[in-house]
Amino acid sequence: MLNPENKIAGNVEALKFFQEQWQLFRKTTNFNFSFAPADKKYDLLGKNEVCGDSEFCRTVQADPEGLRKCRDEKRVFEIMMQTRKPLVETCHAGLIDVYLPVFINSEFIGCFCFGKFLFEPATEKGFAGIVRRTGSLRIDLQKLKKAYFTTRVISKEYIDLVAETFSPIAYKMLKMELEILGERKKVEKLTSLLFEKNSSTEIIGRSQKMRSIFEYLFKVNKSAANVLVTGESGTGKELLAKYIHSNSERKEKPFLTVNCASISDSVLESELFGHVKGAFTGAVSDRIGILETVDGGTLCLDEIGETSLGFQKTLLRVIEEQEIKPVGSDRVKKINVRFISSTNSELEELVQQGRFREDLYYRLKVFHVAIPSLRDRPEDIPLLLDHFCGKQADKHGSKELSFTRKAMETLMTYEWPGNVRELKNFVENIYFLAEGRVTASMVASFLGTGDKRRLSQSCEPDDYKSAVNGFEQRFLLQKLEKSDWNVSATAKKLGRTREWLSRKISDFKLRENLYRQRPAEPSLS
Predict the structure, then answer these.
(1) Are 312 and 343 in contact (CB under 8 A)?
(2) Which of 195, 216, 2 has the alpha carbon at shortest distance from 100?
(3) What pLDDT shows up at residue 29?
(4) Given a cut of 90, is residue 355 above it in pLDDT?
(5) Are β-strands 323-324 and 333-334 bridged in parallel, bridged antiparallel, or unpaired?
(6) Rounded to an integer, what distance in angstroms lies between the CA atom of residue 201 and that of residue 456?
(7) What is the end-to-end Cα distance of the chain in Å, rounded?
(8) Is 271 exposed, middle or buried (0-12, 13-18, 19+ CB in 10 A)?
């Protein structure tokens, strides 16, 4: 029978080996890897902080408040406990960090982290953003600027490579340490630290449904075949199409999107294929079509289900032959274009109804990606909120928003008929409404979720635009009334220009509404 003490001794020797490999890996990559435990009993690897050890970090941490923010692990831990997935995060000072969470028997024990780098080379504009983020700290700006401009720049793909190389070493080290600590049963449940390949892209989502899509796209990207993207309005179909293109072999070539529902067949053909002078009334000169413009690249056909059978026949020939004929011309031009089509319609039903060509359907659907609605992946909402709030902070200043637990619960139980687009609009509006902290009552006032229903029982996704406009009118009218209709002062408070607000007043006829009897609305202040 194996002596447990001998096994522990063997593990200690194995641990030393992996620790040497870890130190070598850190030296080779020049990254500052650390492990931050959620509980002191898991204080492994001799490091108990989520912060960097670079000249930039040391400059920021010269101010005690900067040091406190660097060591504030609470927010990172809360996100990881909710998402249970890796996280690419911009730190409070503006550099990039990567966090890999570790769970044992569903218990969060901490995370590995590495980082303090940039995705793009440092610029004066970028440094201005750093100054805004650290404006409340008493630090040496000249020293900070020098450190910023010498910060390492890496690609998002390199993050994947480093994380995937680092994960097996880190996993072995944790396994050995936990066995030495007597946590043998928990070791069997230790989750893999394989890094999610798409966590550093603009596509935000770490739910199981989105992870499945990312894994599928990783295979799709190896092919040049056509892709059909389906999903409700506002789910991000065009963004996904851009992601597919930017990760394909065609990424250096053009990518364009055409909304097939917004223009007639004749105009659509002219736009796609081009035309020669005199082809029709108004054709005063030759014009190159979109398909020729994106030659070698990718064309996204948005709302493909709205096209006519006549256009579908023409499109089928283009896809099969990879050649076009400009309107009014007999000359054929060869092209090399990948087609990504998107729709919120059920194309199979349209095929059965005879409204969509079956042969074209299968030509477009070599690969099929169905994006889930936001209500089907509520665990992604905290990440999306953080992403959109960060965008607003970068655009309008350093103001940060926090959400109470009740507010977050309300947001995660709301049905989001407008999906991610509606969530983005919510953040853009609430950013100006809230004073740093968003409560459940504020969320209910905006979304009409007092009883966790949609905006109203009769509100359908098609009513989203009018619902948003209704809120914007009430919000602007209330702010104008508070300032006694001082347009300049109101615009300044909202962080907008006077011209913008004047245009809104005219578009919404707010001065006319001022004298009308309005129904009672929840307070927005």
Answers:
(1) no
(2) 195
(3) 58
(4) yes
(5) antiparallel
(6) 35
(7) 72
(8) middle
Is residue 260 classed as helix, strand or coil in its secondary structure? coil
Q: At 513, phi and psi to the nearest 5?
A: -65, -25
Q: Residue 65: enclosing H or E segment and its boundaries?
A: helix 64-70
The Cα 441–Cα 456 span in angstroms is 16
CB proximity list for 186: less than 8 A, separation 6 or greater: 104, 105, 178
Q: How far, in Å, are 119, 282, 283, 326 from residue 286 at the CA level? A: 42, 11, 7, 9
What pLDDT digit, counting tens, does each position of 138-163 carry? 888 999 999 999 888 888 777 776 66
SS3 state of residue 470: helix
Q: Which ranges of 280-404 does DSSP label H, i.e. alpha helix? A: 290-293, 309-321, 347-352, 358-364, 381-396
Span 397-420, pLDDT tens digits: 766 778 888 889 899 989 998 899
Which of 11-25, 104-118, 159-173 bottoms out in mean pLDDT, i.e. has the lowest? 11-25
Residues 359 and 366 sit within 8 Å (Cβ to Cβ): no
Kindly report the backbone phi and psi dihedral angles of residue 12, in degrees, each rounded to the nearest multiple of 5, phi listed first: -60, -45
Angle between helices 405-413 and 440-447 (to 10 degrees): 30
Q: Strand, coil or helix: what is 338?
A: strand
Residue type, 99: Y
The closest of 147, 141, 135, 163 to 65, measured between CA atoms, is 135
Which amino acid, residue 19?
Answer: Q
Q: Give Cα 13 to chain centroid, integer Å.
A: 43
Question: Computed from CA positions of residues 265, 270, 276, 282, in that sequence, does the dihedral angle turn out positive or negative?
Answer: positive
In this prediction the pTM is 0.51
- Would the pLDDT of 514 be above 50? no
Model confidence over 438-482: pLDDT tens digits? 888 888 888 875 443 333 333 444 456 666 777 788 788 778 877
Q: Say if residues 392 and 349 touch (Cβ distance below 8 Å).
A: no
What's the mean pLDDT when you consider all of the chain? 76
